[in-house]
DNA sequence: CTGAAAGCGCTTACAG
DNA sequence: CTGAAAGCGCTTACAG
């Protein structure tokens, strides 16, 4: 059996409460006694029991709120699976977790929900933010003034007082794509990028990482630059039609976000599936199918489950154990899939 | 706050003990009462508190044993990190975990330790087995006769009564390598496999998966077959020297196990690093460095941490919650790394 | 077949 | 500054 608080109390000749005060820095204790108890605990290798702690904490009813924007998208549905698993786990320790879904992007609604959660005495909030000045101010207010820690996931608002960000290192994702593109084109020929919006920071970062790494590591590749398909398959298809027309020797396409179906449709029409290598992002159903049947060559993804799961759990550790995340940035793994390890 | 046992007891007009008996199928309860209580619990969505359960279980002192062969190898050192994390977690819930390391392969020692653990009343054992008839018999005896569940990890003994296996799907790993090789050679040219021993089942399975998938998906590739380097870098180097001599147009090498350094040394001497694509296995330091500096093109790996972590946790869930693993095979992800997502 | 009680290892008012 | 006690949600002998 492991050492308990009581055993340390006996060793030190004090009560359990005193040991608790010493070990958890609760104050109201004579410094000498505190030091002595800490030394004993260290010497005997005391490790607090999570079970005991959890049970005692159950009285406090820690409340964690989650605000999930773009909840209708396939990626966020996977994130939701991770969120729900973490909800179950945290709740089995006596916390309660409320997940609020928003279809699309709606900072006004996010702000409303945050205010509501504050009035309902939530202890911490995880949210997938969007670029919005009011939201930025509110995150700082919650973090600093109200003492309600905020975790951003999926996309970040870097210059805020958020506890940490959980999501992808988008630049690295783009570099990884560049590495794959370099390999499968043998470092030669024309390639092109199809992206969503110029204003989408994470897609832009993927493209930046890709561009940079192609120029550094594969200088023989002729990178034709970026086209924007505005997250629309129809637009993506038209653009691809044009591209294929203009560059009959095109060797590869890197798709930073959505539009994959449109691109593939165009290649299909032109009977170019075999000739042009496709690297796309995100393990959503359509993409997985296109990977399985060989239309796409590689998919790069972020671990959606981990994003959801960790968002809640890092808040839980903070509120429950007063343990801060190891870093302000919790990057999820960049995962490469071909059709065999999917 | 979540529903508690007590609340269900109040609802049903019985005592806590009776609810416990009903919900956990402990018998000694009138069937009608049991049904009624179960219905109530279901209706109100009762979820047991892990914290409460853990504390109550702490009295039992669940003991989990781990036997780690080949503990001196880099891969198993990573497994050990996962084992230690799970040990901490399980112990914080009142279990105790003993990890026994063995350098190299020594079934006799494994068996000795198992017997010792039995006499010390261990409740479950996780072990990385080797092919050995006595060991196979003993696993069955522990599982069936002594009622001590056994989990195999890293390599499996399939026809035993072990609770489950945690590790890699080696065939799929080989297929994944084939997919990469097909892409980076553009499906053409001569390739060759360098493996360890013919008797190593998991290396053999990797090679089988690779061979099969190359012939199916990339029929234009000229697969020159397998050479065995007996897990020795010096041998691997000599073999590669010969191969390069004999096949000046070789396009790719798939290395199923160790010997990577030797192969690369040979390529270096022949100044062929740029011309010959290398796909190797396992995220060990030497390999990671060779990947980073561009000598190797891809590394395929198993999640060593997960292997260690899950080995203990699945036993813990079994012993603690009487919850069996979802399947007899818990395959870890097959991970592809290039030098950007390492 | 059922209930009352003790106890698992913590935290937290409360009393001093 | 310190101690004694109650309580978190379970499980488990024990008594009936």
From TrEMBL, chains A, B:
<dbReference type="Pfam" id="PF00356">
    <property type="entry name" value="LacI"/>
</dbReference>
<dbReference type="InterPro" id="IPR028082">
    <property type="entry name" value="Peripla_BP_I"/>
</dbReference>
<dbReference type="InterPro" id="IPR000843">
    <property type="entry name" value="HTH_LacI"/>
</dbReference>
<dbReference type="Pfam" id="PF13407">
    <property type="entry name" value="Peripla_BP_4"/>
</dbReference>
<comment type="similarity">
    <text>Belongs to the bacterial solute-binding protein 2 family.</text>
</comment>
<feature type="domain" description="HTH lacI-type">
    <location>
        <begin position="3"/>
        <end position="57"/>
    </location>
</feature>
<dbReference type="InterPro" id="IPR050555">
    <property type="entry name" value="Bact_Solute-Bind_Prot2"/>
</dbReference>
<protein>
    <recommendedName>
        <fullName>HTH lacI-type domain-containing protein</fullName>
    </recommendedName>
</protein>
<dbReference type="InterPro" id="IPR025997">
    <property type="entry name" value="SBP_2_dom"/>
</dbReference>
<dbReference type="InterPro" id="IPR010982">
    <property type="entry name" value="Lambda_DNA-bd_dom_sf"/>
</dbReference>
């Amino acid at each position: 059996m492991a050492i308990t608080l009581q055993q340390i109390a006996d060793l030190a000749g004090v009560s359990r409460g005193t040991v608790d005060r010493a070990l958890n820095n609760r104050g109201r204790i004579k410094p000498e006694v505190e030091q002595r108890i800490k030394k004993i605990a260290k010497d005997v290798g005391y490790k607090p029991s999570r079970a005991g702690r959890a049970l005692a904490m159950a009285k406090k009813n820690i409340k964690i709120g989650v605000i999930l924007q773009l909840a209708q998208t396939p990626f966020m549905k996977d994130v939701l699976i991770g969120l729900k698993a973490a909800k179950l786990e945290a709740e089995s320790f006596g916390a309660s977790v409320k997940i609020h879904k928003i279809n699309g992007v709606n900072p006004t609604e996010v702000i409303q929900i945050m205010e509501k959660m504050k009035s309902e005495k939530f202890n911490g909030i995880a949210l997938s933010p969007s670029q919005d000045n009011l939201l930025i101010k509110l995150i700082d207010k919650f973090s600093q003034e109200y003492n309600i820690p905020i975790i951003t996931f999926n996309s970040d608002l870097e210059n805020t007082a958020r506890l940490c960000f959980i999501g992808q290192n988008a630049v690295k994702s783009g570099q990884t794509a560049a590495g794959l593109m370099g390999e499968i084109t043998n470092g030669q020929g024309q390639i092109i990028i199809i992206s969503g919006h110029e204003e989408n920071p994470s897609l832009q970062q993927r493209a930046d990482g890709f561009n940079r790494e192609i120029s550094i590591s594969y200088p023989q590749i002729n990178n034709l630059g970026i086209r924007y398909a505005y997250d629309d398959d129809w637009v993506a298809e038209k653009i691809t039609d044009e591209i294929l027309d203009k560059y009959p020797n095109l060797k590869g396409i890197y798709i930073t976000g959505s539009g994959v179906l449109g691109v593939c449709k165009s290649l299909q029409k032109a009977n170019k599936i075999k000739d042009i290598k496709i690297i796309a992002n995100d393990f959503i159903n359509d993409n997985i199918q296109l990977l399985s049947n060989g239309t796409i060559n590689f998919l790069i993804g972020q671990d959606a489950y981990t994003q959801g799961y960790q968002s809640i759990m890092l808040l839980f550790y903070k509120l429950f154990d007063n343990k801060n995340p190891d870093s302000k940035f919790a990057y999820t793994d960049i995962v490469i899939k071909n059709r065999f390890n999917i």
